Amino acid sequence: MERSLTDKRFFDIEENYKELSSGIAEAAIKCGRDPQEVRFMAVTKTVEPIYINHALSLGLDLIGENRVQEFMSKRDELNLAGVEKHLIGHLQTNKVKQIVGNVDFIDGVDSLKVAKEIGKASLKAGISTDILLEINIGGEESKFGFTPESIGETVCEIAEIEGVRVRGLMAIPPICDDSVKNRIFFENMHRLFIDIGAKKIHNVSMDILSMGMSGDYQDAVACGSTMVRIGSALFGARNYR
Ligand SMILES: *Cc1c(COP(=O)(O)O)cnc(C)c1O
Predict the structure, then answer these.
(1) Which of 51, 191, 231, 241 is least enclosed, having the fewest CB within 10 Å?
(2) Which CATH class is domain 5-235?
(3) Measuring from each residue's beta carbon to the nearest atom of ligand 1, which residues come in under 6 Å?
């Protein structure tokens, strides 16, 4: 019984992967973009290593975990050769030391303080850490991130920090099943991304615009996302958080 349930989940992940990969490509083509411009990140929070490894065996090469502890406890069991690893959740300053050097990117950088801490830990480790700056694009009180109004100034301050390289932006817009409303947030993000990139700030390159999740990735791709973060549509519903 248990065995067949397991098999079913493997099968589902495979089907979901195929469907999502073509969904992402179609969304790109529909708006005249090259599908290669959009990367598919598998969001692995709460997912057991055996299923993550199955997804990786299908060709995924990019994962995102939310929590430092969870990532560190799972990573030895993961087949991570050639896989780019991102921490995508809110990072507390006291956890920075544990994660620097263990992931390729820290995506949810949402304060000057945490950026400085990442810089410090990176210098100590003799490395430079790639980061994305999180924007609270919906202006929600419950969410972390820089305001769209403040980011222009803040990005210059972060650019001065040794040990970090700003590589782009990420956002989690308000949850909404209205495609028109979703697109307003995504378009605003895209504008910020272009505007900051155009400033050609030293140590800042706008390579990655991480936006779009299971429910809204098509809209995000239509508005210029270069990285969609997909959890439940790939692995199935999470049963906590
Ligand atoms: C959980 C999570 C996702 C994936 O959400 P789904 O709706 O399951 O695709 C994407 N980004 C972040 C930051 C998350 O925490």
Answers:
(1) 241
(2) alpha beta
(3) 43, 45, 66, 88-89, 172, 213-215, 229-233
Distance CA 56, CA 118 (A): 28
Q: What is the pTM for the complete model shown?
A: 0.95
Residue 19: per-residue pLDDT: 98
19, 20, 39, 43: residue to mutate for ligand 1 pocket, most atoms within 8 A of CB: 43
Ligand 1 centroid–CA 37 distance in Å is 20
| Average pLDDT per 10 consecutive residues for the chain, totaling 241 residues | 69 97 98 97 97 97 97 97 97 97 98 98 98 96 94 96 98 89 95 97 97 96 98 87 40
Cα gap 161→111, rounded to integer Å: 13
Contacts of range 74-82, beta carbons closer than 8 Å, 24 or more positions apart: 74/44, 74/48, 74/49, 75/102, 77/49, 77/50, 77/53, 78/49, 78/52, 78/53, 79/53, 80/56
